[in-house]
Give the backbone structure.
Amino acid sequence: MNDQHACEPCFPTCSACSSLPTNCSACVSGYTLQNKMCIKHYNNTVYPHPICSDPPHTCILCADASTCAVCALPLFRDPLAGQCVSVCPSRYFPEPKTRLCLHCDIGCLACQQHPTNCTQCEDGFYLQ
């Protein structure tokens, strides 16, 4: 059996993490560790999450006062719209660990679980 492991990056505000990108054990400068999340200080005040302008209960970790970085279950972060969505846009698939909509490979109109696992092709491409 071939057990492969990959090194995944931590969330940008975490200087160290484990198990999930948002399970922080240390924070970058300017952020404070609180309940395994790195929270930003604004005018010497630590704002609880959610602090973004997204509708309540859609965001569990904010990148700043106006941007959601990690969406609450069962939502995913749409990089095109910059919002939390229940269905990723065309050419994107939901990645459950990071709660992000990730881009499918070139030629894929739709994919599942991995960028190269195409389920529907763009015009000019075919499914093998």
Q: What stands out?
A: Residues 44-50 have pLDDT under 50 and may be disordered.
